[in-house]
Amino acid sequence: MNMISIVDKLYRWRIDEAVKKLESKLDNEFYVTDLIYCPLKYRYQKMYKELTISSAINPTTLLGELTHYGVEKILIDLFGPENVKLEVDYEKGIEVDGVLYIVKGRIDAIIGDWVIEVKTSRSDISIPQNHHVMQTRIYLWLTGFNKALLLYITSNRVAEYIVDKPASDGEIADLLRSTITGAPAPRYPWECRYCTYSTLCPYKKSVES
Ligand code: SF4
């Protein structure tokens, strides 16, 4: 066999996925993640596509992705393949101010009538984080299920939280309006520190570490 490079394969995989995701997105489509983070990121990801694509090979993101694969495989082993659905795509339309928008999301796993959302992080500080709870509540709105487990795998704690309040149509409409108008930006003060677009964003907030 000729020389192989796993780094090269991982790089190509992440870049190809990022390009596909960006190119397939229609103007009236929003991912659930667009609704929970800084609304300017939604705007910048289209304006500065090169930055968006290059952020896909961030090692922290890659580590999270690989952990997801591991957890999903274990869920299949523990609960049986017939009881677990993985990476399930959902979409739902909602009319806001006379315009139809589509909200799309990919659910990590569905076991019976439970939505499973997996989060990985180095630290367990402040878990469950507000934006993760909101993301999970949006998944409940999207799927029509009533309960979810928000599972954290961190370096010093593995913990799960029940989320059982689906987002309302009104909350989704407010998040869509905010994402479309680009305000408030950022949604959380810590976001700018990790933001791909912080090198050119005039609204970047510097917070003391
Ligand atoms: S730098 Fe801050 S305000 Fe600007 S896009 Fe990023 S998160 Fe939003």
Q: Which CATH-level-2 architecture?
A: Alpha-Beta Complex
Mean pLDDT: 94
Largest sheet: 6 strands, mixed
The level-1 CATH class: Alpha Beta
- Please trace the helix and strand order, writing H or E for each element: HEHHHHEEEHEEH
Low-confidence stretches are: none
Number of domains: 1
Overall spatial form? globular
- Report the β-strand fraction as a percent range: 15-25%
Radius of gyration: 18 Å
SS field, number of helical segments: 7
The CATH topology name reads Lambda Exonuclease, Chain A
According to DSSP, the number of beta strands is 6
What gap, in angstroms, lies between the N and C termini? 49 Å
What small molecules are bound in this structure?
iron/sulfur cluster
Structural class: alpha/beta
Helix fraction, binned, reads: 40-55%
